[in-house]
Design brief:
Number of strands of chain A: 9
CATH superfamily of one domain in chain B: Metal-dependent hydrolases
Largest sheet of chain A: 5 strands, parallel
Number of domains of chain A: 2
Distance between the termini of chain B: 14 Å
Shape of chain B: globular
CATH class of one domain in chain B: Alpha Beta
CATH class of the largest domain in chain A: Alpha Beta
Structural class of chain B: alpha/beta
Largest interface: A-B, 26 and 19 residues
Largest sheet of chain B: 9 strands, mixed
Radius of gyration of chain B: 21 Å
CATH architecture of one domain in chain B: Alpha-Beta Barrel
Helix content of chain A: 25-40%
Oligomer: heterodimer
């Protein structure tokens, strides 16, 4: 058993062995993508529900694609079409889902802790597709997979995460996963976005971008949520770009082999300059492809799939 | 004469009890003589009075009925959470004989008719004395002053917009002056809404780790400071509700040493639990002010021990099971407290060595009564016979089924506490009897 729990709620709950085990299976699925027929009939006859209580395009499509490539039956429901707006509690929703006998639930929710709550009341497997500002474990895994494809073992490797860490579930999943694998993590952004309290998790906080990236092997550039102007955590897009934007000048100061991740969708010329977004250092499309593979691996493993039954693939 | 719990006589003796009053727990066994709802006499030993029914207290502690300066009984408007009747029963089960109700009902208690209504509802239930507070501003809108004089005449014991702060400092200043003239306090809910924003728990390591929006200490500290300075300038009496930060404790300590007329209370959850309890996103640990850090918890406990904080008040805030089933950020603030207050106090303050039992009882009886000038809280000749019998060593596990409150949103579910109430009397009448702990009698 690669995964000990019936659920994937966060990288906080996963051990380094589990993370590496999942990534190995993901690498084998990744190899399937280059075949003419990309689906495998492993999940035939099983029902996966994609419950998105918050807008999402990429993550939802990536999950759907992963499910389809495993031949699962899929039901989608999202805020606009569910009774959630009427004030149904998550428990009522969960009980309805349980009565319908589904095999797996993928949940995206605006409340931190929502995935863990459902996992506690449902017998089926639950995969957290992002809960509030808490965790986004599949994004964390695909980021780590992308880093390992270039760097191999992450022990001692320097990863700098730049952006609104306080409100980022991507950042939290990266922090838990990367520190477990021995990477040295630095968080960078203005103090309004990077709570110093996070240093207790074993990471460094650095408010100066040039210092934060000087020795980095990888930059993970988070999306700035423009609507957060309202909370006054930064003065303007222009100033953010000036102080924390990944510009060509910043890229020139990086180590020659350093590369750049971004979870998408990008705000061009805010957190990342357009030239950099289109330039040779970014690995954004690898992240997208790895995302499908990671999600296939998790769904496969949680469904009791036998790792040995898959063909070999390149090690992640 | 033999004792029967079925019919409490107009005159009786309680013997074989350890009297606990004026901050001291009696070393020797004593007695209490009750006659027509009043305390006829009390002392050590066991007097013989021919023909009087005798309740053998079996070594229980006998203390004044507890006094809680901060409860939400939700009536009128939110009777699905609690009513004056169910709240009064919860109070009696927790050993309380007097409670001060908060005015943030729907509609708010903002006129004398509403004050009378609450007192009447309390009298109908007959299990606990209800001392209502009134709102500072009509509808708790924070814009103008209610008719304090008319409401005091109807029985209001203080004014507060509890649940919300009074953002308008000029209104707060005037309320302190005007209430000061009437001899009643303004109760401060010290919070700066522009600082806490959409926060749902204490701002610190755990909020950062859990990805929940934080409520900074500075909100409470700065608002406490503002209200104290307004009290100093006006000469009015400020009572600070639910103090939860080390900073607020220090601000109050200094103000008291400088002679400002300020009193303050703290809740059981703020002297016993810290913000790490939110780690599993349970809304049973969501309240306002929030659970803070261990240094704050210790400062609140020390403040109670050294008298900086005058008393313990529960901030009993019932919510339905459904409301507390929403996710942490969506669920309402507040937890119940009346039925666990004694056990939490003994477990976290007495058994941990912060204070002795006499002091704890004083913080739940005489001290709160004095802070708000309530004519209750002491065992003495001539006083009305409000008293409680409890076993300080009885261990029990908090269970949802055991609550008498209409709501069960307690932070202590599943926890083992020491100290449980056996029987509560108000005006010499039995208001609560724990069948398991009741001293022997014919049933």
């Amino acid at each position: 058993m690669i995964l000990k729990s019936k659920d994937v709620l966060g990288l906080e709950e996963m051990s380094a062995e589990e993370i590496l085990g999942v990534l190995e299976i993901a690498a084998r699925f990744r190899a399937v993508f280059d075949r003419p027929v990309r689906s495998v009939p492993i999940m035939r006859g099983r029902t996966v529900v994609n419950f998105f209580h918050e807008p999402s395009t990429r993550t939802r499509i990536s999950f759907e694609l992963a499910e389809k490539r495993l031949s699962a039956d899929i039901v989608n429901f999202s805020t606009a079409t569910s009774s959630f707006k009427k004030g149904e509690t998550l428990r009522d929703t969960a009980e309805n889902l349980a009565a319908m006998k589904i095999d797996m639930l993928i949940i995206r929710h605006s409340s931190a802790g929502a995935a863990a709550y459902l996992a506690g009341v449902l017998e089926c497997s639950v995969i957290n597709a992002g809960d509030g500002a808490h965790e986004h474990p599949t994004q964390g895994l695909l980021d780590i997979m992308t880093m390992r494809q270039r760097l191999g073992d992450l022990r001692g490797k320097k990863v700098t995460i730049i952006g609104d860490i306080a409100h980022s579930r991507v950042a939290r999943s990266n922090i838990w996963g990367l520190t477990k694998l021995g990477a040295e993590v630095t968080l960078c952004g203005p103090p309004t976005m990077v709570p110093g309290a996070l240093e207790k998790l074993g990471v460094k906080v650095e408010h100066d971008l040039k210092r934060a990236v000087a020795r980095a092997d990888v930059l993970n550039v988070l999306r700035i949520q423009l609507e957060r102007h309202a909370s006054k955590s930064f003065p303007s897009n222009r100033e953010y770009h000036r102080m924390y934007g990944i510009t060509e000048e910043i890229v020139r100061g990086l180590k020659p082999e350093a590369f750049i991740l971004h979870p998408g969708p990008m705000n061009r010329d805010v957190e990342i300059a357009s030239e950099v977004a289109d330039g040779p250092r970014q690995v954004i499309l690898d992240q997208v492809a790895n995302g499908v593979a990671v999600r296939m691996a998790l769904i496969y493993l949680l469904s009791g799939g036998d790792p040995g039954a898959l063909g070999g693939g390149q090690a992640a | 004469m033999d004792w029967s719990w079925k019919r409490i006589p107009a005159e009786f003796l309680v013997t074989n009890v350890r009297l606990c009053t004026q901050g001291k727990l009696g070393k020797r066994k004593g007695f209490l003589h009750v006659r027509k709802g009043r305390i006829e006499g009390l002392g050590v030993g066991s007097p013989t009075m021919e023909g009087l029914p005798v309740l053998d207290g079996a070594g229980l502690v006998c203390a004044p009925g507890f006094v809680d300066l901060h409860v939400h009984f939700r009536e009128p408007g939110q009777e699905e959470k609690e009513t004056v009747a169910t709240g009064s029963l919860a109070a009696a089960a927790g050993g309380f004989t007097s409670v001060v109700t908060m005015p943030n009902t729907s509609p708010a208690i903002d006129n004398s008719g509403m004050v009378r209504y609450l007192i009447d509802r309390g009298r109908d239930a007959g299990l606990c004395r209800i001392f209502p507070t009134g709102a500072i501003s009509p509808g708790r809108q924070g814009e103008a002053m209610c008719e304090f004089g008319d409401m005091v005449a109807a029985g209001a014991v203080g004014f507060t917009d509890d649940g919300s702060p009074v953002p308008n400092g000029n209104l707060m200043a005037n309320a302190l002056k005007y209430a000061g003239m009437l001899g009643v306090p303004i109760i401060s809910h010290a919070e700066d809404l522009t600082i806490v924003g959409n926060g749902v728990m204490h701002a610190g390591y755990w909020s950062a780790r859990l990805g929940l929006a934080g409520m900074a200490r500075a909100s409470e500290d700065s608002s406490t400071f503002r209200d104290i300075e307004l009290a100093r300038a006006s000469g009015g009496h400020l009572h600070v509700a639910h103090v939860s930060t080390r900073g607020a404790v220090e601000i109050i300590r200094r103000a008291k040493s400088e002679g400002v007329h300020v009193t303050a209370e703290a809740t059981p959850h703020h002297f016993s639990l810290d913000h790490s309890r939110c780690r599993e996103y349970s809304p049973l640990f969501k309240m306002n002010p929030p659970l803070r850090e261990s240094e704050d918890v210790n400062a609140v406990a020390e403040g109670l021990a050294d008298g900086t904080l005058d008393c313990i008040a529960t901030d009993h805030a019932p919510h339905t099971a459904t409301e507390k089933e929403y996710q942490f950020d969506q669920a309402p603030f507040g937890v119940t407290g009346l039925e666990t207050a004694l056990g939490v106090g003994i477990t976290y303050l007495v058994n941990s060595g912060v204070m002795d039992l006499g002091r704890l009882v004083e913080l739940m009886t005489e001290k709160p009564a004095r802070a708000l000038n309530l004519p209750v809280g002491r065992l003495e000749e001539g006083a009305e016979a409000d008293f409680v019998l409890f076993d300080p060593e009885k261990e029990w596990v908090v269970r949802a089924e055991g609550f008498k409150s209409r709501s069960r949103n307690s932070s202590y579910l599943g926890e083992k506490l020491s100290g449980k109430v056996a029987a509560t009397f108000m005006r010499g009448r039995l208001t609560w009897l724990d069948p398991e702990l009741a001293p022997r009698g014919e049933d």
